[in-house]
Design brief:
This protein has 451 residues and is an alpha/beta fold. It contains ten helices and 18 strands. 22% of the residues lie in helices and 11% in strands. α1 runs antiparallel to α10. The chain is elongated, with a radius of gyration of 30 Å.
Length: 451
C-alpha cells in the first residue's frame, strides 16, 4: 500500500514537472504574437511597419527601432551624428530633415540595402560628408540634401548609386563640382543645383548623366561653361541658367542638348559682339520656349535681346573656325559605368524610370489628404514657374520637397482615420484573444502546481 502511494506521488510529480516544462517551452518557442516594442517617445504602426519619432527633441537616433521597420521618421529633432548600425535592414523611407546633423560616419547607411528615399535636407550644420557616406544604397531613388551648407562634395560620394533618379542639392554653398562626380548616376532624371556658388562648369562635370531630364543651375555664380560640358545630356528637356554671371555661351554647348524644350538664360550680363554669333545662330534653328537674353555690351546693343539681333549685326565678324565648333558628342563613361550601363540599359523615357518611385509614395500608410500645416519648403516664384510637362509624373510629388503627403500622427489633417491604422500603443491597451488564452493557461498551471 505504501509502495503504491509512493509510486502515485512520484507519477503526479513527474506529470506536474512535464506540464511545467511543456508550458515553458510553449511560452518561449510558440509565444503569442504580442506587440513589437516601440522606442520611447515614438509612435509605431504595424502595417507597413512604421516608426514615427519626429519633433521630440531627440539628440541621438533612438535605440530599439525595430529592424523590420519599413518607414522611419526622425525629422525635426536635434540629432547631431549618424553612426553605422543605427538603422534596420528593411527600411525603405528614412526622413532626417530638420535636425542638427554635423557628421555622418562612412557606412552609416550600409545596412539599408532596400532604402529608396533618404531626406537629409535642412541640416545647416552638415558642412562636410565622408566619401563613403552613402555606401551600399544601390536601390536609392531619391536623395535630399538641400540647405545643408555643404561646401564640397567628395568625388566618390555617389559611387554605385545606379538607381538614383532625384538628387536635391540646392541652396548649399558649393563652389565647384568634381569631374565625374555624377558619372555613376546613369538613371538620374532630375538634378537640382540652384542657389549655390558654382563658378565653372568643366568638360566632364556632367559626364554619364545620359538620362537627365531637368537640370537647374540658376542663382549661382557661373562665369564659364565648357563647350562640351553638356555632351552627355542628349535627353535634357529643361535647363535653367538664369541669374548667373554668363557673358557668353559656346554654340557647341547648346548643340549637344538636342531635346531641350525649356531654356532660361535671363539675368546674365550677355555680351552681344562677335562672340555671341554661335549662340544667336543656334537660336535661329531651335524651336524651344526661351527667356529673354538682354545684351549688356557693346553699348550700342545694350537692352536688345540677343535672340532677335539681325544678321547684319554680325556682318563684320570673322567666320567662326569650323574646328572650334566641331566636336564629338559621343557619350563617354568611366569603365565601371560603361560596364554597368551595357548590362542595365535604362528606359528611354523618364516616366518609366519614375514609376516605381511614384508607387512608393502612393503606398504610404497615410490618407491622401492635403496637410493643414505649412510646408517646410516653399517654392520660390522661379521654381513655381517651371513648366508642368507631366503633372502626374513629377509635380504632384517632387516639384516641392514636401508636396507628397508627409503627415504622421498629430501632424495629419483632422480627417485622419485613427481606426484604420492603429498604433502599437492602442494595440497594447486591447489584448488579443490569444493573450487571454496564454494567461489562462499560465494561471491554471500555476494553480495546479502549487495548490
Amino acid at each position: 500500500m505504501e509502495t503504491r502511494r509512493t509510486v502515485r506521488g512520484s507519477s503526479a510529480r513527474n506529470y506536474k514537472g512535464g506540464l511545467t516544462l511543456w508550458l515553458i517551452l510553449w511560452l518561449v518557442v510558440v509565444k503569442p504574437g504580442g506587440v513589437t516594442a516601440c522606442p520611447k517617445l515614438c509612435v509605431c504602426y504595424p502595417t507597413p511597419m512604421t516608426v514615427s519619432c519626429q519633433s521630440q527633441n531627440l539628440t541621438i537616433v533612438p535605440a530599439g527601432v525595430p529592424y523590420n521597420s519599413q518607414r522611419v521618421f526622425l525629422q525635426n529633432n536635434r540629432i547631431t551624428e549618424l553612426r553605422a548600425d543605427s538603422f534596420g535592414f528593411e527600411t525603405q523611407v528614412l526622413w532626417l530633415y530638420g535636425n542638427n546633423i554635423t557628421w555622418i560616419e562612412a557606412g552609416a547607411f550600409s545596412n539599408l540595402r532596400v532604402l529608396e528615399e533618404l531626406d537629409l535636407g535642412d541640416n545647416p550644420s552638415l558642412r562636410h560628408l565622408e566619401g563613403g557616406a552613402f555606401r551600399g544604397l544601390e536601390k536609392l531613388q531619391s536623395l535630399h540634401m538641400h540647405r545643408c551648407k555643404l561646401a564640397t562634395l567628395p568625388h566618390d560620394l555617389f559611387h554605385k548609386l545606379y538607381s538614383l533618379q532625384f538628387l536635391y542639392l540646392q541652396e548649399n554653398q558649393l563652389h565647384f563640382l568634381h569631374d565625374d562626380l555624377f558619372s555613376d548616376l546613369v538613371n538620374l532624371t532630375h538634378l537640382f543645383l540652384h542657389g549655390n556658388r558654382i563658378r565653372t562648369l568643366t568638360e566632364n562635370v556632367f559626364r554619364g548623366l545620359v538620362n537627365l531630364d531637368r537640370l537647374l543651375l540658376h542663382d549661382n555664380r557661373i562665369r564659364q561653361v565648357n563647350r562640351r560640358a553638356f555632351r552627355d545630356l542628349g535627353r535634357l528637356t529643361i535647363l535653367y541658367l538664369f541669374n548667373n554671371s554668363l557673358a557668353e555661351l559656346p554654340g557647341q554647348t547648346m548643340k549637344d542638348v538636342q531635346d531641350i524644350q525649356f531654356l532660361r538664360l535671363n539675368g546674365n550680363p550677355w555680351s552681344c559682339g562677335c562672340e555671341a554669333r554661335p549662340l544667336w545662330e543656334w537660336f535661329r534653328k531651335a524651336r524651344i520656349s526661351s527667356s529673354d537674353l538682354m545684351c549688356t555690351s557693346p553699348s550700342t546693343r545694350r537692352g536688345q535681346d540677343l535672340r532677335f539681333l539681325r544678321e547684319m549685326d554680325f556682318a563684320l565678324c570673322p567666320l567662326p573656325d569650323p574646328g572650334s565648333l566641331a566636336g564629338s558628342t559621343t557619350t563617354t563613361f568611366s569603365t565601371k559605368t560603361r560596364w554597368w550601363f551595357s548590362k542595365n540599359k535604362p528606359e528611354s523615357k523618364s516616366k518609366s524610370l519614375y514609376q516605381k518611385s511614384s508607387e512608393t509614395v502612393k503606398s504610404f500608410p497615410f490618407p491622401a489628404v492635403k496637410p493643414q500645416f505649412p510646408s517646410k519648403y516653399e517654392l520660390s516664384a522661379d521654381e513655381a514657374a517651371l513648366p508642368k510637362l507631366d503633372q502626374e509624373e513629377y509635380w504632384t510629388n517632387y516639384g516641392n520637397e514636401d508636396s507628397s503627403v508627409r503627415c504622421v500622427e498629430l501632424d495629419c489633417a483632422p480627417s485622419y482615420d485613427d481606426e484604420a491604422f492603429p498604433s502599437f500603443s492602442s494595440l497594447a491597451i486591447t489584448p488579443r484573444p490569444l493573450h487571454f488564452l496564454s494567461l489562462t493557461i499560465l494561471v491554471f498551471s500555476l494553480h495546479f502546481l502549487f495548490s
